[in-house]
Amino acid sequence: KAVESDAPKFPIPANVYAETVVSVHHYTDRLFKFRITRPQSFRFRSGEFVMIGLPNAEKPVFRAYSIASPAWDEEIEFFSIKVPDGPLTQHLQRIQPGDTVLMRQKSTGTLVVDALTPGKRLFMISTGTGIAPFASLVRDPDTYDKFDQLVLTHTCRDAAELVYGQELISNLAEDPLIGEFAPRVTLYSTTTRQQTSHMGRITHLIESGKFYSDLGIDALNPETDRVMICGSMHMIQDVKALVEKLGFEEGSLNSPNSFVLERAFVG
Ligand code: A2P
Fold first, then answer.
1. Which residues are paired to 101 by β-bridges?
2. pTM for this structure?
3. What positions does the domain FAD-binding FR-type occupy (predicted)?
4. What is the ipTM of this complex?
5. Which atom of ligand 1 is nearest to the CA of 191?
6. Which of 5, 7, 218, 263 has its CA 20 to 30 A from that of 250?
7. CATH number of 113-263
C-alpha cells in the first residue's frame, strides 16, 4: 500500500517490521507523540518496549521505546523526546504521516502487571517520557482486573510537558472500550521548573506526605499497594530507595513482587 516515494531506500533487516506512520503530534520542542500501523502478527504485553529505528542507513540505529498504546489497539503509539544530536531522534522528530518506521519483532520489559503480585492500588510513578508504558497500562482492561485503583504520577519541568498525560486521562472517559474504568484512575501531575498549582519532585512530595494529602489517600503500604517506576535514571534510583525503605520488594516475571522499574528512553 505504501506509495513509491515512501519505499525504504535500504533493505529491511531481518526480524524487523517496516510500518507506516499514521499520525504525529508535537507537544513541545522536546516532546512528540506518533502512531504507526500495527503488524498483524505483532503481539506484546501492555507496558513493554520495542526497538525502533528508521530505514535511513544500511545498518539503522535502533533505540528502545516503550509502547504507549494498549495491547488491544490497532495502531502502535510512542511518546518520544527530541534530542538535537540524538543518533535516532534527530531524524525521528522529522517523520511525517506516510513515512516508514522500523520496529524489531520482539517486545520485552519489566513494567508488566504479571511481574507484580495482586494488590488493591497500583501506583505508576513517571517523569518525562517515562509516562509512555503507563499510557499503555491505563488503557488496558487487564490492569483493572488486577487492581482496584490506579494512581499515575507524572513530573516534568514545565506545564506543556504534562499535556500528553492530561489528554490521555481526560480522553479515557470517552473511550467506548475502556471508558468504564476512568473513575478508577487518578492523575497527579507536578512541575519542577515552572510555577503551577502542583509543584515539586515526586520523591519530595511522597516523603513530605503532600502527595497523600493532596489526593486524600492513605500512604503507600506494601501490604496493599504495588508500584511501577519509569523515568530518568536518578529518579528511578531515588524512588526505588524510597519504596524499599517502606518495605516494597522488586519483582520480575519469574518472581512477581511489590514493585518494578525501568529506565525511560534517553537519547
Ligand atoms: P528537576 O527539574 O528538579 O530536575 P528531565 O526533563 O531532566 O528528564 O526531568 C524530568 C523531571 O524529573 C523533572 O521534573 C526533574 O526535576 C525530575 N527529576 C529528575 N531527577 C529526579 C530525581 N532524582 N528524583 C525525582 N525527580 C527527578
1. 19
2. 0.95
3. 14-114
4. 0.98
5. 14
6. 218
7. 3.40.50.80
